[in-house]
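## tool: complex_structure
## caller: assistant
## args:
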Amino acid sequence: MENPFDRPPINISAALTDGRVPKWRKDYLASISATTNEKGRLLESLRTGEDPTIRDGVNLALSRLLDPEAPRDSFGKATFLVHDGTGTGKSFQAILAAKALAAETGEPALITTRADLIPALRRDLDRLGLDDSQIAFVPIEQLGAFLKEAQRQKMQFSATIVDEAQDCRIPEVRKILERIPANRQLFFSATPFHNLDEFCYFSSKLTGKSSHQVKGEITAAKDLHLAVSDQLRQITSAGGMLHREFPFYGNVLPPELLPLSSESRAAETQLINGYARLVENRNFPSRRKLREDLATELNTASDVTKVDSILQRTVELLSQNRKVILAGDDQPVASRILRAQDGLPKETPGFLSALRLAMAAHGIECSFIRAFPQNSEAIPALSAERAAIGARNFAEMARFVDGAYRTGESGQRLELRDRDHKPVFAPSQTNVILLPYEQVAGWPELNQRFPQAPEVSMILTPTASADQFIQAIGRGSRRNSQGPTDVHLVANDSCADRRRLSQLLKGLQFIATTGSPAIAPFLQLAADCLDRTSIQRTAQDQSLIQHQKNQQPRSPRIFDPNRCRAPQARPGVRL
Amino acid sequence: MITLSTHHFMDPLDELSNFLAPVKSDQLTGPILHSAPLLGLDVWQEAIDSFDVQAEAETNAGLPLEQQQYLSDLRVDRYLYDTLAREFDLLDDWFRKNPAQPESARVAAFLRRRQQCGARSWIDQQEKIYLWAQKNERDDFATSILGWRILSQELAESLLAWSSREPEDPRGQQIRLWQDSQGFYPQNRLRIWAFRFPEDARAPQIFEWEAAIKREMFETHPELLTGVQ
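## result:
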């Protein structure tokens, strides 16, 4: 299979606008030079090489940001969005745009992103042979404090450059960014908007319209997805944004549909009816939570029926010398409705936990990532518990990752490199990792970076969240992947799976409005899977009805004239 | 060409949720009390103007963004409470000086709500109650607590969207102080809003939910009331 990362990424913007992306007129990169000759080759290749991705991104962004006629947001700032996929070189573009903006305006540029990503940006600065003069790197977590100091010192910046701009979903980030003394904002993100509100935030900035107006226009349209797509086309044609992306590197296999036993169907019905009764006697807030609990119970009940089949599939894949990344939910349940034989609430382990036990019983050791307590990222009182789980998860992840590592003096994990500065290969300790969907973001280490290492297969169960689903896919295939990834979606025709697939499809449809080629195969996958589960369910239900009918004792039909009487017409009523 | 699903899934959970949606109508059941003409100052506008977004910037610097948002939400909740308390104080003073004015009866009715408003510590109590509910999810009362938060999130989200559509409506003015956030414990800011605008069709349910929670807490888990004055 051809590695798509050997070519430049696909220009989605050009496809969206039928090639009518504005052309840049000035090469702003020409004014940037490396401080040392030996490190100038990379910069030179970005300026003159075959791949125009970075040069085009920087020049189009500056064309817009320096254009006095460009639309301004409600705070008077000109804005540009680089909506490039993973591995397209956003960090390089951010650094080069900062340098070029500073050179053009004489004012320093401010680059902000999460604190743990700043060192990587600084490394890229060094790789380009540039120094940090005229660039202020500020961790986004410290932006508020930095702003106070900047205001005291009456600093002025040429632009605020935000890497990983999906953080703008947090209101506090938006508030601080508004106040940075800079007339321009440049955003970089592979996933800037997951929903309508997030889209409206960026669209408002890029068009100069109010967020309310943008939302009004979209919600008034007959087709929401078409309306979003139209707005993106207009913004792109007007030179407000750019979108490049690599296609998915791998094979998306047809969904695997597992049978659902009649006992599981009966339990599903029992749960739904039981919760309906439970809800009747409870207060209003409690009812709302019970709805969530029913969804959890149905999901876990559905997922646990897949354990044996997925175990079997995993064994097959391991025997083919593949590594397996398995993503699913892990929500243990003590049923509010179903009872065990001893009369106590029936307990069902979370899906991933059950799978881990089944694998252990078959002698398969796997890495197991635990989910954090809900909202523990926000509540300071849960920080310690979160940190402890995070440390254990990191150790589990490390067992699954190929490559040689040593522990540094301060306990950090350091990759061993050979004389040519290439990472040294060593096989991992485990070949299977279990990832809960809540914990699926991040983990760049999971991508297979060694050509001599096993290829990766992913097994996914349905999730309602399109964002989590796509994040999970990214654990298998990213810019640095050295081999293709197989994706297996395993579902059944339970109510829980059809519900999750239906929501997943809606979410993917929204993301697909951007024209992303990496989404397309998964949109098709989710649609196929939902169709097939629905058809299977309908067939099962009809078969069940027929079976019940056949079991009813037949009686001679008695003619009832009332049932056959033609309705009598009343004056003024058309029948 | 992608063929999208032609099978519409009938979600059985929708049947449960049909009667679970909060009231979202912005209808009024009576006139709103405007305190600015009586007091000669607009308490809420003054509060908006003097709110310092960066007040805790140095203290919170370096904390994860989500924690900063959490702490900011709680600060906003306290600020909203204090602003309402200030409006009560000023109107109380006005009422003493102007008992015979035509607006006096409505002001008196407004001031009577103050007792129900309760102590400021209820805002900080939310974290303890929420963490308890998370740890005891199987407990019936925990179900109520967590459901209360979900319902409040839905209503707060709809109020935020409504206020951006109706920027001139006085009921939206207070929502400008929410800083574009529904709050981590949205019930805090919702109740302040409802105390200020009980004539709004969305307000009574906010009181009902809270009353149900407090009643259940008092009956089943009074220990969680410790610290609430």
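## assistant note: The first helix of chain B runs from residue 12 to 17. The radius of gyration of chain B is 20 Å. Handing back to user.
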